[in-house]
Fold each of these.
Amino acid sequence: MLYLVSVPIGNLGDITARAREVLESADLVACEDTRTSGRLFGLLGLRARKLTPYHEHNAEKARPKLIARLMRGEAVALVSDAGTPLISDPGYKLARDCRAQGIPMTAVPGANALLPAVQLSGLPTDAFYFGGFLPDKSAARRRALQAVQSLPATLVFYESPNRLIAALEDIAAVLGDRTAAVARELTKKFEEVRRAPVSELVGYYKESGAPKGEIVIVIDRGAQAAWTEDAVGDLIRRMLRTHSARDTAALVGAATGLPRKHIYKQVLDAAGHEP
Ligand code: SAM
């Protein structure tokens, strides 16, 4: 069985009892860096049996070997340097292949940087989009931001301190001056969440210098775009495929907030009826 085991992102107290049990009893623990995990296990007082590297540079070669051991019935645990494996960390292809081969798999959940950042941001939590790391280069970063600018969701990105100011500048340029939170050093001694309009955050960090430590950026959703004539027409045509003209007018009116009379005329035009 493959165990996807979360480990702390800073605070050692965040290791779970189940993670301890699985890591100590697994035949093999695959990790990004055997020295980093070895050190962490030492601090946690864990006696893991055997550590083996599994990272982006050796994954193609290492994966078939891990799969072979799993097929023999061994218990393999996968951890990353910190937090939850597969979340902006290696492991997705291993999980994909296990699923394809019918190898049993389970997650041992625990710490990650994503959820505490969303919780502590003070921004709406009903829907959020996690974009992993934004691209390094500004042009690609702006394209990535354009792709999500209309999402009706809080946006979350991992970022490194030396790219923070440039990323915030691109966020302001593409998404506008939304409220955002920079969550830093989560679960650690110097945990900090700074929340302000993006332009203020840019000003603050330009003055104080790029912060140290690990960072998550959380951004408020934009105001809902106004309904254009084309968008309303498109919605009407789609609704008419499965609804009567009367129901379409009522539903589109409710969705857009536009006057019912105005909608009804468009519905009849689209349905090919005389008003
Ligand atoms: N797998 C990890 C998880 O579950 O969150 C994330 C790994 S990713 C390679 C590392 C990034 O996660 C960092 O660059 C930072 O953006 C974020 N991160 C990790 N630990 C953090 C912490 N203690 N505080 C804030 N962000 C953190």
Amino acid sequence: MNIVIIGSGTMGAGIAQTAIQSGHRAILTDPDSASRQRAQERISSGLQRGIERGRLPESLDSYLDRLSIKDAIPNSDVNWVIEAAPERSELKQKIFHDLDERYPSTVWLASNTSSIAISKLKVNASRHPERIGGLHFFNPVPRMALVEIIRGMDTSDEYVTAARKLVASLGKTGIVVPDRPGFLVNRVARPYYLEGLRMVDEGVAPMETVDQVMEGAGFPMGPFRVMDLVGVDVNLSVTKSVYEQTYYDERYRPHGWQEQLVERGYWGRKSGRGFYRYE
Ligand code: NAD
């Protein structure tokens, strides 16, 4: 299948790598040239690692033949579009309006949003809202098995069937979840991060201890390490988005510490510093 991916950041690059590893063609698009360059490097080194460890049977060139990275989306020969642009509802609403105008009803459209209800994202897509839904991948995409499949208002049964088929072809498990802010995983995960932030702020324990204890208790990563992996900026946007969409439910109130790190440019692993420092 030909899969267009909008946004070549952490998630877009991961989805593109997974698509070409699974035999699909990926057309990765981003208006920012530095981001396109980083995605090219990240995908190549991810594939190279998989080949060296014996997990990927083809040559690097053969995988990369199925990838193109561009500054604009193509008009034809598209089966799926997966949007992985920044977590801002007006931006995504505009993208879905444009996609709905551009493509015939046979092209399936998905958002990889972490938190914005799909029904809200497609309010301006009035031609064929039935072919729009959510495919929520997790980071790092090549390694994480779950994809939340979200049907918004008007999303068709055919969409859900096609989404399940696509997700299975990518070697992942698709689970249909409700179209609520944060869906399922991010609704449960928000308090994990926020309680960690509050505990450190209140002097209950240092962040290293919080991470160590949660990891010792069986969580793969403590809350601060996860925020650094996700991107402190992305994590804050998702928290704000869930907070606003739940009409300011106290349980999801963002923490000032997140805002300070984002303003300072400490965005986590991708910028070399977040809650922790990286080489
Ligand atoms: P990111 O900041 O790493 O990448 C976003 C990319 O979008 C950037 O390369 C930027 O140049 C590009 N972009 C900006 N404006 C654009 C436009 N108008 N059209 C196309 N591209 C544009 O963000 P990310 O972490 O990859 O997150 C992308 C989406 O995936 C968000 O909705 C986020 O909530 C969701 N998500 C993130 C994670 C995570 O762990 N980071 C996990 C699941 C879902």
